[in-house]
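Justification of resources, computational component.

The compute hours requested in this renewal are based largely on the per-chain cost of generating structure records like the one below. Each record pairs the submitted sequence with a full C-alpha cell output. That output is archived, and it is also reused by downstream analysis tasks.
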Amino acid sequence: MTILDPELLEAFVPEFADLCGRLSAAAEVGAAGRGLDALHGMAGAFGIASLVAMIEAAREALDPFDPTMPETTAQLLRARLAAIADAGADLPPEAAPAGPGRLRVLIVDDSALMRRLLREAVAEDAGVEVVAEAADGTAALRAMAEHQPDVTLLDIEMPVLDGFGVLRRRALFGGPGAVVVVSSAAPPGSPAAVALRRLGAQAVVGKPSGAFSPDLARQAGAAIRAALRGAVP
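The structure output for this chain reads:
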C-alpha cells in the first residue's frame, strides 16, 4: 500500500472524477479511447499504479459493439478512486477490507423472487452475511467495488450486462472475492458451465426446476452453501 500526499490527493480526486464523468458520456469508441488516454495520463502523473493498470486493461478491451463499456469502466474507476481517497493510499485491485469473521455475500439476479430465495437458502448458515443485492451485471460490478464481498452469487441471464460480461470485466479489471454461478442456463458439466469456469467462476450450481422454484432452499440450499464455503480458502 503506497501512502499518498494528502494535498496532492485532494487535488487529484475531483479532477479524476470529472474525467470519469466525461468517459461515461462517451458516445463512440474514439471518444472513449481519448477519455481513457486522459485518465491514464493523470493517474500516471500522480503515480497511482492501480488506476493506471485498470485504465490500461480498459484500453485493451475497448469494443465498438459494447456501448456499456465507457459507463461501466467509469463506474469501476470512480469506485476505486473512492476507496483510494478513503484510505489515503493507493490500493492493489484485489485489496479488500478485513471482514468481521462472517462470509460476506453479494447476490446478483434479475428476479426479485430468486434473490429472496437465495437469501433464504444462504441464511441457513449462521456464518454467512448477505451484504448487498444487484439486479443486473452493471449494478453487480458497482456493488462488488463498493461492498468487497467474499463471494458473489451470480446469475447468467440478466439485462444490461449478463453474467458472462461480469466475469469478463473481472478478468480484465480484477475484483474482490470469488464468484459462484447459480443459473438454470448453465447446468454443471455443460459447455456453458465449462466456459464460466474458464472465465474465473469458482463453482457453478444449477437452479432446480428452472429459474423460479419455491423449493430452492430445500432442493439446492445445501449445494449453494457448500459452494459458498468451498469458494473461500
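The radius of gyration is 18 Å. The chain has two domains: 2-90, 103-231.
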